[in-house]
Request: fold
Amino acid sequence: MTRGQVFEFFRRLAEENPSPTTELVSSNPYQLLVAVVLSAQATDASVNVATRPLFERIKTPRQMVDFGEQRLRDAIKTIGLFNTKAKNVIALSQALIDRYGSEIPRTREQLEELSGVGRKTANVVLNTAFGEETFAVDTHVFRVCNRTGLAAGKNVQEVERKLDKIVPQPFRRDAHHWLILHGRYTCKARLPECWRCPVIDLCRYQPKTPPPGERVKPPKTKPSAARSGNRASSTARTAKGRTASKPKAGRSRVRPTRLP
Reply:
């Protein structure tokens, strides 16, 4: 895309959703960090179901450590990889107490030193909790950037670098939220809903998905002549075999005599 197209791309997304944010529910940066760690290979909705009662009583690293790994496992057992995630959350909580006085560090390097925290998680926390202009590339962002041609890349690092280079102001702070939400609800993985996409004319994806009422089902393909011939000969062989196995009329079947 050209610079003008990139600007227009985000301008339209911003027009549809002026104040995008994460769908993970939290009340402070610590809870946000925990929620993002738990969201790896899980949906935000499933994480919110587990953390809603948990976060009513756990708001600080100390409270989490006191809560304990076993009870945390039980609280998040509906989330995938809950054993590993519970271990990581307790470990990072203890590290926050020991190294940072229970505060959340504000650099990517320090965040990535915590158990269970990778670059994407660090970027989400820095952006959502502290307003940093970071670009967290998850599966939705990666798909949208490659499918539309906005910032194509072979891996998440390449896509992140390209986004950092091309996204203009005033869209930089919220860019990754717009891309996540666009990928989650419009530019879906299996069937992108192109007919209601605000950036359809800027996107290189082809063919565009038509509205549900205008989709044409592909015609049923007729079997090839060779396949039809093979099927016919197979049917004939089966019928011949059945006929041969039937006893001829008028011929009685002789039973073997029993030995004395």
The radius of gyration is 30 Å.
